[in-house]
Amino acid sequence: MNLANRITLIRIFLVPIIMVLLLINVDLKPLTYDDFSITWNQILAALVFIVAASTDGLDGYIARKNKIVTNLGKLLDPLADKLLVAAVLISLVEMAKLDAWIAIVIISREFAVTGLRQIALLEGSVLAASTWGKWKTAVQITMIIALLLNNFPFAFLDFPFDLISSYAAALITVYSGIDYFVKNKNLIPVA
What we know:
The protein is built from 6 helices and 2 strands; from the N terminus they run αββααααα. It has 191 residues and is mainly alpha-helical.
C-alpha cells in the first residue's frame, strides 16, 4: 500500500461523504442573492468533489514519478474514478439537476470501456487513457462542478453553462467511448 494507492483510497472514501452532503437535507438557511440560491450542503459537496477529483491526477503522477505503479493501483484508480462520477451523477439526477439520460449515457460508457479494458487485460495488454478519454473526464468534472454550484457564476449572466456542459459531456463521452472501441476492435471477439 504505497502513497499513490493511499491517495486513491482517499478518493473512494470521499464518495460517501459527498453523497451524504448532497442527499441529506440539513436545515440551514441557503445562501441567496437576487434569484440565485445555493445550500451549504452543495457548497461543501462541491469542495469535497473538487478535492476528490484533484487526487485523480495526483495519484497517477506520484506512482509514475516514483516508479511505484502497482496492479492494485491499476485496479483501484479507474474504480475510484467511476465510483466518484457515478455517485455524483446519480445524486444530481435525484436532486433534479441533471437529466437521467445524460447520467445513463455517461455511466453506460464507463461500464462499456471498463469491459473492454478487462478484455485487454485478459489478452495481456493495458489500454491507456486516450486523449478523448482525458477530455471526457475534464468536461465531466466541469459539468459536475457547474451543476453542484447551481451554475455559479454563470447564473448571474443568464448563461446556461451548466446545461451546455451537460450536453457537451454527453457528446464527448459517447465519442470517446466509440473511439476506444474503434481503436481496439481487434480485442472484441466476433463469432
